[in-house]
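Fig. S4 source data, part A: sequence.
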Amino acid sequence: MAENPKLTLKKKPTEPARAADSDRFPTNEELLHELRRHGAKPPPPREIPTFSRRTRDYLLLAGIGSAVILGLAFRVLGTADVAVTLKLALTGVALWSGLAWFIFYGVMSRY
């Protein structure tokens, strides 16, 4: 009987991994490292703000709006009972702050 000779497949040598890396753009870290070799100083560390811009704007708008609502409520309803005026003003402030919160954090967070 005839025996089947073992087939040996010769694999082509793979290209070195550097060929694939040469086509890519260098990362920011690599570029900064390259600049430091030539005497460039590293950038100063960025300060992390305590509040985000969105939070700052919301607090500013809600605070000013609340003060305006309270002032208008007591000016318009100054002759009425103080408890009723205060209740109406606080309801207005709560609605205003809730609407502003929804706009700033519900709607604008999607963009």
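Fig. S4 source data, part B ends here. The chain has a mean pLDDT of 83.
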